Amino acid sequence: EAGVAQSPRYKIIEKRQSVAFWCNPISGHATLYWYQQILGQGPKLLIQFQNNGVVDDSQLPKDRFSAERLKGVDSTLKIQPAKLEDSAVYLCASSKGQGGDQPQHFGDGTRLSIL
Amino acid sequence: AQSVTQLDSQVPVFEEAPVELRCNYSSSVSVYLFWYVQYPNQGLQLLLKYLSGSTLVKGINGFEAEFNKSQTSFHLRKPSVHISDTAEYFCAVKGVVTGGGNKLTFGTGTQLKVEL
Q: For residues A92-107, b (16+ Cβ closer than 10 Å) or e, as one string?
């Protein structure tokens, strides 16, 4: 089966600009996650969707970050305006369901650099 | 809430030697435990998982891990490493909570460097 697809792979922008990332999960996976991975750290969950509804966005900086999954399949994550501390790899993952026994499958990520 | 501690940020080891990567967790509820591997410029790949049952879990690429409830540990082992095992390894925990919505919490990672 095809894996989780993310684009772009790399993005360089200046601070205060906006940027958007796209994710296409594995077919049939109802649950979609966006993680932020800062250099030298483990991934941190930003937002979790179950179909097109938000399950957990407690760690999403809502003043600048937004995410949507309108049709319950693809998802976009946006940052506006970007800050220097947003430099990180943004990983998208998907799973069949929310259960703890459901493994999450990760895409290769988008590496964001803020100048 | 859960937390994960990976005690070693870097582990150098010679090829064909055994290796153990340490992971300890804290949680107020029962947990599911996972090990993921991340190769440079790639996403995370699941190595193995503990859900229930036997405390010794076997995964891909010859890795195994043992769940120790009394010591709240889930150490990853491989009896003989290969150059291709050089990567970052992440331990992760998720609470066993009905209804879902319980997030996966990752440790800070251990960089395994296999040398000739």
A: bbbbeebbbebbbbbb
